[in-house]
């Protein structure tokens, strides 16, 4: 498969919502947070979230297109620090934006989520990751907030291409890249130079859900490891 990468545009949002749901339904968060909520309602929440992300100048939503069909097959969300006027440091670090997003998620759980949402899981999940991240995330870090490939296109180089896009830009600015890896994604990140910082076990039963999910906090130092081939 020949893959083309480009910045997302608003008309991509419905497809990106679909990719998000299909790629992560088996991870536990979606099924535990929205038990019994109609698919169309969850899809609309995801679509609106992508539009909000696209509007933020520090967030780069990158999509992967199949060159032959033009279909979107994957996407990634990268957060870069905002450079100051002298090109030094950051006016607002990626970590600050992650904190803001967690706060917005918590607010949304109280105000905007549909009937049937497990609000405890929605707020608790983000709060745990926010608190854990404070020990590791620097203001001048790049954050890989999200990356997903449609299940039928996994193993075809889509994820590697999306990773390469962000790694090349982070390397050019000599920045670390922070992320929260699923168990399935962990080997890919390790091969591309990320190192594990801490394992976080999310127990959904504490909020009335089912099962557990393990995420690994990771960081990639500049010039550490080869680019994804």
TrEMBL record:
Domain N-acetyltransferase: 3-220
CDD domains with a match to the protein in the record: NAT_SF (cd04301)
A family per Pfam: Acetyltransf_1
Single annotated GO MF: acyltransferase activity, transferring groups other than amino-acyl groups
Coiled-coil zones: none
Protein name: N-acetyltransferase domain-containing protein
């Amino acid at each position: 498969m020949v893959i083309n990468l480009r910045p997302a545009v608003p008309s991509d949002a419905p497809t990106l919502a679909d990719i998000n749901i299909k790629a992560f339904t088996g991870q536990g968060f979606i099924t535990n947070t929205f038990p019994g909520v109609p698919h169309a309602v969850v899809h609309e929440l995801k679509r609106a979230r992508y539009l909000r992300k696209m509007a933020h100048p520090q967030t780069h939503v990158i999509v992967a297109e199949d060159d032959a069909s033009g279909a979107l097959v994957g996407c990634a969300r990268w957060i870069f620090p905002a450079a100051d006027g002298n090109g030094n440091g950051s006016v607002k670090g990626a970590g600050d934006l992650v904190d803001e997003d967690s706060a917005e998620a918590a607010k949304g759980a109280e105000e905007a989520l549909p009937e049937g949402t497990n609000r405890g899981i929605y707020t608790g999940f983000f709060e745990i990751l926010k608190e854990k991240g404070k020990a590791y995330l620097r203001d001048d870090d790049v954050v890989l907030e999200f990356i997903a490939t449609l299940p039928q296109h996994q193993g075809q180089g889509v994820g590697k291409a999306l990773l390469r896009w962000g790694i090349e830009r982070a390397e050019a600015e000599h920045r670390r890249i922070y992320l929260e890896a699923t168990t399935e994604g962990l080997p890919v990140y390790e091969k591309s130079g990320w190192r594990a910082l801490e394992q976080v076990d999310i127990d959904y039963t504490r909020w009335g859900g089912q099962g557990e999910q393990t995420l690994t906090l990771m960081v990639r130092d500049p010039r550490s490891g080869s680019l994804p081939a």
